[in-house]
Hints:
The structure holds two protein chains of two kinds. By secondary structure, chain A is an alpha/beta fold. Chain A has helices spanning about 1-10, 15-25, 40-45, 65, 75-85, 100-105, 105-115, 135-155, 160-185, 195-205, 210-225, 245-255, 270, 280-290, 300-315, 330-345, 365-379; strands spanning about 30, 50, 90-95, 125, 235-240, 260-265, 320-325, 350-355.
Amino acid sequence: MELMEKLVQPAKTLSNPYVEAWKKKGGKVIGYSGTYTPEEIIYAAGILPYRIGGRGATKVTIADMYVGPVICSYVKCLLENAADGRFDFLDGAIITYECDHMRRIFDTWRRAAKDGNAHLPAFFEYYGLPHSRGEHASKLLMDETQRLIKELEKHFGVEVTEEGLRNAIKVYNKTRKLLRKLYELREKDKVPITGTEALGIVITSTVMPKDDYNKQLERLLGELDEREGITGKPRLMIVGSVNDDVELVRLVEDLGAVVVADSLCFGARCFWNLVEEEGDPLHAIVNRYWEHIPCPRMFGEYSRRYSFVRDIAKSGKVDGVILENIRFCDLHGADNTLYGRDLEAEGIPTLMLERQYGPLADTGRLKTRFQAFLERIRR
Amino acid sequence: MNEKLIQASFPQALSRRPGMVSGTATDKEVKDMLEALIVTPGLMETLMLEPYLSEVVWPFQEMRSSYLQNLSNAHKEGKKIAFESFCFPPAILYAMDVVPLSPEVISSFLSLGVPKGIFRFIDYTTGIGIPETMCTAQRGGVGVILSGLIEKPDMVLNAASGSCDTNSKMFDFVSEYLHIPFCNIDAPPYWDEDGEMTKYYRKEYRKMVSFLEEQTGNKLDEDKLRQCCEEAKKQDEYVAEIYDLRRAVPNPVPAVFNLIMFGTRFMSSGTPQATEVMKTMYEVVKERYRRGEGVLPRERARAAFVYLSHFTMGGEFWIWLEHNGISLIMEALAMLGHQHYTIDTSTADTMLNSLAEQAHNMLMTKQIRGPLDYPGQWFEDIATLAKDLSIDCAIYLGTLGCKNTWGGIKVLMKAIEEELGVPTLIIHSDTWDDRVTLWPTIRDQIEEFVNTMVVQ
């Protein structure tokens, strides 16, 4: 399927033909770090939001000069990509306080640039988030978002209008609805798409213009209706730390499984919830990001996270759940222990897997763990 | 003496009680752990051997016994126990008859009191699935609680939200693991003095007070709150006085007083026992200053430990520093931020605001919540204190769990070297777990650093 390839390929590289074409037309690109950055405001400013990641890095020698030894390898790879000039196409970057590892990128990237070891985009902002929910937390987040908008308008000489935000909401909600449809297809007994492809499609949604993406995804969904589905394989779900590396999923699927669901931030968690289309658009956007399926950075929210994982596991009729965390990612590591306890109690087998992010340096070990898990499921 | 202390503090300690988390601990283990917590033989031996420390030992011991006694008697007396963070002054809890239980306090006294005492509890948490990469400051104490050796908490107050994910996640985990209620007290993403961030924190603090009222069924008693605030105010004044005396050369403040100062604040802020400890420390330091005595026979280096120092080996670390002419001028845990607020006891509202601001300005909560070079953050505070206290070297010791400081420490130290002209040393070690880097290795690294980089 040529269309499938078009929607999966950009997930494997940092720059891609869509970004290159955008830049060629004089368009600006802003990198953002995770699922709590309100992309709609960037889109409404006429700028392409682009989610930065760690893929493609094959070493972390520069990153190691700036961070300590107990830092998540995804974040290190991201910093290394900045050092290696792979983000030089960015006109701006927003580092959102998602976790302690990621937030320090705001300090380390600036320092690496000062030392001449990385290019720092001219627009470089920190977006601070609270951890509590409630009225005063919403107000704080609203104030912070308005500050960010002002900085963006000032730097790029643009205006983020109410109309622009409303339009952004429509476009983004369309993407989310289409991706929900894609995930519904994965629930079928005959699964028309592999987990590797699905992850690629979601990643691509974060690195190309949404209008174009929506058109292509809509067509792809039509084609998938005709596709012969996968049956007879163990159905798995992946839950845990950030992963923008499709090869990890391919590794599991090459062993004879099919991944049909996930709770990942380059996955269901980044598109599941819609923005309310009525009322004040900025409030609606802020509320959506604040109320979406919570990342483990939100404390006291385990039951909401678990309900989501359990419901998705059940609707996907999964035979097992892989609970993965990148080494040193304690937020997911601790949650995974609780998920393991609770899913097993509901009769759903789980595999706890601590791993390093990167070009699958420990492929052999991961393969052995996956094989053993599949044996348990097949027994 | 040990047996008596244990009996006095834990009358029913030798058999496990219904209030504890069920575990597989033997009675001997229960007894050993209690002995370690109350007597901390290693630490006490160290303190008693140094003549200038002995005056402070007894009020400190009395305060610690009282903390543990409260914990032991809480359920019997119908009180609730709150599992709370070390970076949170518990005066408000005393005012509301809630008993504080900080895992970091338990971890520290175990690791300081008994050689290898904390290891099995750290390992216990790994055994139940808590990642081994999480912070040992919590893992030791949580291991003690989850293995059924001390009272089970009734609720969780997470005050590390905004400053430390790992710490916060442990509180989140314990709440879910034990199925007990949880309250998040969130430090906002930036720090300010009486601005929007402070207002946000005051609201979080009041949310916690409502949560405590709900959990205990008691309304906040203004008179009791005032008593606690009056004590907390006196304690702050002593802390400020001791800080002023650190400016003297040679430094008259013994290194171990930092532990006693922040340990007292974490355990018993707002109590008369804590005031007594602070007062005694102040008097000892003032007298030494009056006599022109420093702790060290010769002060070769005035060191800032920009985060933690080392909490094992019976506190030998501090004594070793002093015997080698290295004055521990500043330890981040003792940077209590007292200059940013005052405790106003006029009304219930002003008292709650004051206590909220005290918590908002606690170490860690204040300094490492935002970008390193933002106002009131890590670099600015270190720079201010480095100049004020004539610091001539900066050393980082942390824990492997501390992702937030490890994420920025190299950048911070580069800035300290370049902008303050102060040499720096980063040591890969764990403050509570000597298995990561052995104590003699840490000692050798500091010695070599001081000899080559500081002493000219």
